[in-house]
Amino acid sequence: MSEEQKQAENRARPTTEEFRGFVREDWSERRPQATEPAASAPYAAQRRAVVSASFPRQRLIVPAGGLKVRSNDTDYVFRPHSAFAHLTGLGADREPDAVLVLEPTEDGHEAILYFRPLGERDSDDFFADARYGEFWVGARPTLADIELELGVTARHIDEFEGAAAKDAGEVSVRLVRDADRELTARLDAARVENGAEQESLVEQDDALSHALSLQRMVKDEYEVEQMREAVAATHVGFEAVIAELETAVEVGRGERWIEGVFGLHARHQGNGVGYDSICAAGDHANTLHWIRNTGDVADGDLVLLDAGVEVDALYTADITRTLPVSGTFSEAQREVYDAVFAAQEAGIAAAKPGAKFSDIHAAAIAVIAEHLHAWGLLPEGVSVEDTLDTEHGQYHRRWMVHGTSHHLGIDVHDCALATRSEYMDAELKAGMVLTVEPGLYFKADDLKVPERFRGIGVRIEDDVVITEDGCENLSAAMPRTSADVEAWIAEVREENA
Ligand code: GLY
Ligand code: MN
Ligand code: MN
C-alpha cells in the first residue's frame, strides 16, 4: 500500500447504506439564498456589453479558476480571477471552478455562467464531499439563485465542456488562459484537434485578456463607490494600528502585532487585505516589499505601514503612512518626511485629465531630486536636470527606485496587461483610480547619506480618482503632513486612553 493510500485509509469514514439513508432524510425546505439582483449586476452587464461589441461572433471564455491546495487536503481561501470578478460582479470566495461564457448570438452574446450548484440532499455531494459539500463548506447557490442575483443564464458546470466544444472548428473561441491552467490545457487540446495552431491560439487568447485588462482602466460609478468603501475601511485599520503602537513596542515582534491588528480590521470589515501588509519599523522601511514583518518596533522608530482593505467585491485600497512611534518626528525624520510630502503634493497636482500618466512621476521625482541635490547627495557636478535625464542621469533612483503611481482596482496593480502607450504614455481620464506614492529610502548602511538620515525610510501613498478637472484624493481624510500626522497620533491615543 502506498503512503498516499495509507493516508487515505486513515481518514476514510465508513458509510453504510443505513447511514446514508438516515443523513438524507428529514430536512426542511431550504430557503432561497438570493432574493434580489446584486447591486453590481447592471454594471457587470454593461462591462460584458463592451466586451461583446469588441469580439462579435466569437465564444469568450472567462474562468473563475479553481481551488488551490495549500497543503495536503487543505486549500487556500478561494479568490476568483480578476477578469471573472469584473465581468460577473461576483466577489469574496465565489465561485470555485465556475466559468463565464459569452456565447455569440445573432446580435451580440448571451452570458452563461457554468458552475457547481447546490447539491441535492440525496447526493453524496451533500455530506460526503469535503471540498465542495454543503456539510463541509456551506450551501452553494442554486441555478435560480445565480440567475436572479447576476441576471445571466445559469448552467451546471458538467455542461461546460460540451458547450465549449459546440460547433468546434466553426466558432472562434477565445479564453482567459491564466485563470485555470488545467481547463486551458483541455481546451487547447480540443482546439488543436480541430485544426487550430497552438501559437495562434495563444495570440488570440492574449488579445482577449489584454482587452479585459485595459477595460478596467476607467472605473464606473459602482467601482468608484467600492474604492471609497475600501479606503474608509483602511482608514479604520490604520487608526486601530495607531492605537496599538505602544503595545507593539511592548510585546516584541511589533511588526507582526501591527500586521495582525490591521488584518483583523481588514477581515472584519471586508474580504481581507488586498495584498500582504508592509509593516516596516526603522530600517525595514528601506526594504520596499518588507512583508516578513518579523521586527521589533522601538520607541524612536518610524513605522512605515503600507496596507489596504479589499472589500467583498474585491476592490482594494493601497495606502501608506509613515508614523513616528513616539508621536513626534525627530528633526532628521521630519526633514525626510517633509521632502516626500512635497513630492507627493507635486504628484497629486499633476494628476488631472489631459496630463499623461507619467507626468505624475515626473512631477514627484523632480521634487525628490531637488531635495537630494540640496542635501548634496548627487555626485559632484550633477545638477537636478542632469539626474532627471533618463538616458544619462537617474542617480536619484538610488534612493527611490520605484515608480510614483499605478492603477488600482480589483488588482492592487490593476490593468497590468496594458501596453506602455496605453498606460505610462496615455492621457489620464476621469474615472481612473491611481496611487500617488513617492518615497525616500536611506538604508542604515548607506555611506553616501549623512549619518542623521541613515535608517530612515518614508513613503506616503494615497489613492486618487481622476475627475473632470483634476483629481479627488479618496484618502484625504487620513492626515498626511508631518504636523497633521503627529496630531492624528495624539488624538487617537487620547481617544483610546
Ligand atoms: N503596496 C504595493 C504598492 O504600493 O504598490
Ligand atoms: Mn501602491
Ligand atoms: Mn502600497
TrEMBL record:
GO biological process, one term: proteolysis
Coiled coil: none
Cofactor(s) annotated in UniProt: Mn(2+)
Catalytic reactions of this protein: Release of any N-terminal amino acid, including proline, that is linked to proline, even from a dipeptide or tripeptide
Record's keyword annotation contains Metal-binding: yes
A single GO molecular function term of this UniProt record: metalloaminopeptidase activity
Enzyme class: hydrolase
Superkingdom of source: Bacteria
Record bears the keyword Lyase: no
Gene Ontology CC terms: cytosol
Region Disordered: start-end pairs: 1-41
Domain Aminopeptidase P N-terminal: 38-182
Recorded family membership: Belongs to the peptidase M24B family.
Protein name from the UniProt record: Xaa-Pro aminopeptidase
Family matches, as SMART domains: AMP_N
Ranges of compositional bias, category Basic and acidic residues: 1-33
EC number: 3.4.11.9
Alphabetized InterPro entries for the sequence: Aminopep_P_N (IPR007865), Creatin/AminoP/Spt16_N (IPR029149), Creatinase/aminopeptidase-like (IPR036005), Pept_M24 (IPR000994), Peptidase_M24B_aminopep-P_CS (IPR001131), X-Pro_dipept-like (IPR052433)
UniProt keywords, alphabetically: Aminopeptidase, Hydrolase, Manganese, Metal-binding, Protease
Pfam families associated with the record: AMP_N (PF05195), Peptidase_M24 (PF00557)
